């Protein structure tokens, strides 16, 4: 996978994870162009889009679009599965997740993603294991400090 | 669960106690910064973009000041806010160092945010690597699994080559950790390292093997990812891991529930019966309402079409139906599949659909689609008339999106089909009468044809189509009126005007009267603002004045350009093109050639011992039959020196013709005027028209491929194919990018000893995407049947750096020539 983007129906970026090194300017350009292209697509159209030299796999969940860029020879259905797995994880973690959860707790959304994927490849197929690891780390944040826990 | 479970108990750590103490002091001294959620609320409350920018600028200024004051207590909150601001598209690079400070902190919250920030703000191009490498090394040795996990995750995300080298040993150690949570992350980290620095693969090999005897799914899946990557990199490793394939199959059997299958590794077990069954099911999927299923079905059919065409053919109508789908992704797949399905039996019906598609398609499809149609038409055309009609329809339907290769292809075909020339000219005249400003390629082909074969239109009745009463007859004045419009319309490109001007000049010898009007039209260009048009204006005017007696001979009809000439080599055939085009067409065709050939000449010098005069001698031989009957040319070399031109293999061609003019005239009127403007023909590069559309190679069965070059993640493979011409071999060069960054401006050049002749087709592209490839066809003629030596020059840019390299290739199999 080359990158993953989460953005709203209004075209606002909610999360971005890059697994390839690009200059900031290029990242912004890609993000902008991709958001416009995907938002212009009708709901009945398929989830795949050949765009420049990558394949885009995207899916809309409520007001949020989840969008991954994968190599031409990568499996698009598998990517769709990864997206869905991620959404399920967010849903479990936040308890019926909504866009606002991801906006106000974007760092948690990143943490969960980093337990699911590493370097753009899937690292854990068990939802239970991911959530267990996240919960343990959240706890570590609370108690590892002698003083009152720091609120972000 | 409490913290001591993870061995992370900073209460006993002196440094941590110090940190707690200092921060307690700071917290008293410094005001508490705004909370992250409050900042997000404020930003969301902003009603305009300006308001939002104000909030953010204010907060950024504050964050900067806290960074300056080394406020470590609230650092993680401030960095978190900065990360949110960064996502909104504002600059946040000043937080990079703060992230590193957070990582070095003892507190887990700090580390978590610090590593998150490092992953978001740093990538392999940043120069703080040494610092982060040290932090990572520390944390990879931590006793807390989650700290190690964070470090591995960050290493996997950034993984610059230097970092990979420095930390590979640590990662290898962690791959053997008793903790599955760490093992799976280490395996993926190793995958990223191998991806970036393939040489490091060796050290991971032993640890990788044991990953597959795992029970844990996470470790298994990451292990398979790592092995797949290793196998793709090195054939040796592939051999090594082939032994474990049965193992994998057994694992798969046991774990059918696992959402991933390492199919790449399993050598394909293909049951033809099953395949046909599958294709039929896929065909049914094409009718499915779910677009995702349709897309995947098309994609899979495209993969199977080469294995079993007839099974896929059965779904042709459904596939053609998909061309009309509103979804662009499905149309693109269907289009590709349609082209794969064309054969000589269905070419007429398929082409009808594809041309309809071309007419209605979005601009992004037109270029690719028209070139593919041209290729398919060339391969499967039932007859010439149909072929020509198809090309004309492409030119009309795709307008300005037509690529140059279609123009040259069409011209070549017209020139080669003597009995259709009148018909084609009439059709093109019909098209030209309308406004063609959005169809420049069509205009170019039309003017070329009318220039060559216009007399057929003027003085005989040409029937268009099947109806014999539908007759085109043009008067000279009508023709000139249209030309006047074409020449001065601001919508027409310079290239089109060049075609038109040349065509007009040619018409002066086809016309029975009106030559004076043509002369005036040409003369107007003598003061044209555009330098090339002006030059042509001046040159052609000379053909009406002092050199008028030369005009009929110079402007004679071009002999047919045959696509394949079996008695000559293809090199000669291509050279002949420019020879017959002569001076007047020089700017259209010859300069392209000279550009190509001068490159290879420069390379010839590299080989040493080859002198340019031999090239000249060779080309001189080809031009022995110029279209104009003239006294034989004097030494080209002298003239070339005289003109001080950059010598290109075909520059002599142009020169040869100048030479003729020169021979005839310099003796009696010593007129440098003709010579001068023509002398700079070599520099007319903007008007080059690539001549392509040469015959597609028929691959013979005994093709063999070898690696010609492999360095820095670029692999060049040669596939040798014996061609059907004697002592000629064609090589399909394929360059693969095995890095994860695209390679742009890819240029592949080749030089061979002078006993060989080399012809290079244009490459399929100049950009190689990561794990993508570019191909280029080479043809080498070896009349002396000597051993082939080859020198290659390769240049490309990757990640902002330009890479140039040279290599020699001397191990060609000798039996390829017989």
Describe this structure in words.
The complex is a heterodimer of chains A (152) and B (818). By secondary structure, chain A is of the alpha+beta class. Chain A has a five-stranded antiparallel β-sheet, with helices on both faces. Chain B has a five-stranded antiparallel β-sheet with strand order 3-4-5-8-7, with no helix packed on it. In chain B, strands 6-9-10 form a three-stranded antiparallel β-sheet, covered by helices on one side. Chain B has a two-stranded antiparallel sheet with strand order 1-2. Chain B has 818 residues and is of the alpha+beta class. Chain B is built from 35 helices and ten strands. In chain B, strand 3 and strand 4 form a beta hairpin. The N terminus of chain B is likely disordered. Chains A and B meet through strand 2, strand 3, helix 2, helix 4 and strand 7 of A and helix 1, helix 2, helix 4, helix 6 and helix 8 of B.
Strand content of chain A: 15-25%
Number of strands of chain A: 7
Computed CA radius of gyration of chain B, to the nearest angstrom: 34 Å
* Largest sheet: spatial strand order of chain B: 3-4-5-8-7
The helicity of chain A comes to 40-55%
Morphology call of chain A: globular
Task: List the quaternary state of the chains.
Answer: heterodimer
Summarize model confidence as the mean pLDDT of chain B.
Answer: 77
Q: From the helix content, strand content and strand pairing of chain A, which structural class follows? A: alpha+beta
Overall geometry of chain B: elongated
Q: Counting H and I runs of at least 4 residues, what is the number of helices of chain A?
A: 5
Distance between the termini of chain A: 30 Å
Question: Biggest β-sheet of chain A, characterized?
Answer: 5 strands, antiparallel
Order of helices and strands of chain A: EEHEEEHHHEEH
Unreliable segments of 5+ consecutive residues of chain B: 1-7, 257-271, 565-702
| Most residues in contact, chain pair and counts | A-B, 63 and 84 residues
Judged by helices, strands and strand pairing, the structural class of chain B is: alpha+beta
**Portion of residues in helices of chain B?**
55-70%
């Amino acid at each position: 996978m080359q990158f993953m983007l989460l953005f709203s129906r209004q075209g606002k970026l909610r999360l971005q994870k890059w697994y390839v090194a690009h200059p900031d300017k290029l990242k912004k350009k890609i993000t902008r162009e991709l958001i416009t292209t995907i938002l212009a697509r009708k709901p009945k159209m398929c989830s795949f889009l050949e765009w420049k030299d990558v394949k885009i796999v995207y899916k809309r969940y409520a007001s949020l679009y989840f969008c991954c860029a994968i190599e031409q020879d990568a499996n698009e259905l598998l990517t769709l599965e990864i997206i869905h797995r991620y959404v399920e994880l967010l849903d479990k973690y936040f308890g019926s997740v909504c866009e606002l959860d991801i906006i106000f707790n974007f760092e948690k959304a990143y943490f969960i993603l980093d337990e699911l994927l590493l370097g753009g490849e899937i690292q854990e197929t068990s939802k239970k294991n991911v959530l267990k690891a996240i919960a343990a780390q959240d706890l570590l944040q609370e108690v590892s400090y002698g003083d009152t826990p720091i609120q972000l | 669960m409490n913290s001591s479970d993870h061995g992370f108990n900073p209460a006993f750590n002196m440094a941590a106690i110090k940190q707690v103490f200092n921060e307690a002091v700071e917290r008293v001294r410094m005001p508490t910064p705004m909370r992250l959620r409050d900042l997000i609320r404020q930003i969301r409350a902003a009603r305009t973009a300006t308001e939002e920018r104000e909030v953010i600028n204010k907060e950024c200024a504050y964050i900067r000041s806290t960074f300056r004051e080394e406020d470590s207590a609230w650092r993680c909150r401030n960095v978190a806010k900065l990360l949110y601001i960064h996502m909104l598209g504002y600059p946040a690079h000043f937080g990079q160092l703060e992230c590193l400070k957070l990582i070095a902190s003892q507190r887990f919250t700090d580390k978590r945010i610090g590593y998150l920030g490092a992953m978001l703000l740093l990538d392999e191009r940043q120069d703080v690597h040494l610092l982060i490498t040290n932090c990572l090394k520390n944390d990879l040795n931590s006793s807390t699994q989650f700290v190690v996990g964070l470090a591995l995750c960050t290493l996997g995300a950034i993984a610059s080559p230097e970092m990979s080298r420095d930390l590979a040993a640590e990662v290898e150690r962690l791959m053997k950790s008793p903790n599955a949570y760490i093992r799976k992350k280490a395996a993926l980290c190793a995958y990223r390292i191998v991806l970036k620095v393939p040489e490091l693969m060796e050290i991971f090999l032993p640890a990788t093997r044991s990953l597959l005897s795992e029970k844990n799914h996470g470790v298994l899946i990451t292990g398979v990812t790592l092995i797949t990557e290793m196998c793709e990199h090195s054939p040796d490793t592939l051999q090594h891991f082939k032994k474990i394939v049965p193992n994998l199959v057994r694992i798969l059997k046991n774990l059918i529930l696992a959402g991933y299958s390492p199919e790449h590794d399993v050598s394909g077990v293909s049951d033809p019966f099953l395949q046909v069954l599958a294709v039929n099911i896929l065909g049914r999927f094409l009718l499915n309402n779910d677009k995702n299923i349709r897309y995947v079905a098309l994609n899979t059919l495209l993969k199977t079409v080469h294995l079993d065409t007839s099974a896929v053919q059965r779904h042709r109508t459904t596939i053609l139906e998909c061309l009309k789908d509103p979804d662009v992704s499905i149309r693109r797949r269907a289009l590709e599949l349609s082209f794969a399905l064309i054969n000589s039996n269905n070419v007429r019906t398929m082409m009808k659909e594809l041309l309809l598609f071309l007419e209605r398609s979005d601009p992004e499809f037109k270029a690719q689609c028209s070139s593919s149609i041209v290729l398919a038409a060339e391969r499967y055309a039932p007859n010439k008339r149909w072929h020509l009609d198809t090309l004309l329809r492409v030119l009309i339907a795709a307008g300005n999106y037509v690529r140059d290769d279609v123009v040259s292809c069409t011209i070549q075909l017209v020139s080669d089909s003597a009995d259709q020339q009148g018909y084609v000219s009439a059709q093109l005249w019909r098209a030209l009468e309308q406004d063609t400003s959005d169809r420049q390629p069509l205009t170019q082909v039309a003017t070329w044809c009318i220039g060559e074969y216009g007399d057929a239109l003027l003085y005989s009745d040409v029937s268009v189509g099947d109806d014999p009463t539908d007759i085109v007859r043009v008067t000279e004045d009508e023709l000139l009126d249209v030309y006047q419009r074409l020449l001065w319309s601001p919508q027409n490109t310079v290239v089109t005007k060049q075609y038109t001007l040349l065509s007009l000049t040619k018409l002066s010898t086809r016309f029975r009267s009106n030559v004076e009007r043509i002369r005036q039209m040409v003369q107007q260009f003598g003061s044209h603002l555009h330098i090339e048009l002006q030059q042509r204006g001046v040159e052609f005017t000379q053909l009406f004045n002092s050199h008028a007696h030369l005009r009929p001979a110079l402007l004679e009809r071009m002999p047919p350009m045959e696509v394949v000439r079996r008695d000559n080599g293809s090199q000669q055939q291509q050279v002949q093109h420019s020879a017959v085009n002569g001076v007047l067409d020089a700017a259209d065709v010859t300069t392209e050639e000279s550009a190509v050939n001068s490159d290879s000449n420069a390379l010839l010098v590299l080989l040493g011992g080859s002198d340019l005069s031999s090239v000249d001698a060779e080309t001189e031989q080809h031009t022995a039959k110029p279209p104009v009957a003239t006294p034989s040319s004097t030494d080209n070399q002298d003239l070339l020196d005289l003109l001080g031109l950059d010598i290109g293999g075909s520059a002599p061609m142009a020169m040869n013709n100048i030479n003729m003019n020169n021979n005839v005239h310099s003796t009696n009127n010593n007129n440098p005027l003709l010579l001068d403007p023509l002398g700079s023909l070599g520099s007319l590069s903007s008007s080059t028209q690539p001549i392509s559309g040469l015959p597609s190679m028929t691959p013979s069965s005994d093709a063999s491929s070898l690696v010609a070059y492999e360095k820095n993640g670029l692999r060049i493979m040669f596939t040798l194919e014996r061609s059907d011409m004697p002592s000629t071999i064609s090589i399909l060069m394929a360059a693969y990018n095995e890095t994860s960054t695209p390679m742009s401006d890819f240029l592949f050049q080749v030089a061979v000893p002078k006993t060989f002749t080399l012809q290079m087709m244009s490459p399929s592209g100049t950009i190689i995407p990561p794990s993508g490839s570019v191909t280029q066809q080479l043809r080498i003629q070896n009349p002396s049947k000597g051993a082939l030596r080859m020198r290659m020059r390769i240049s490309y840019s990757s990640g902002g750096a330009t890479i140039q390299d040279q290599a020699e290739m001397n191990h060609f199999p000798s039996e390829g020539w017989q």
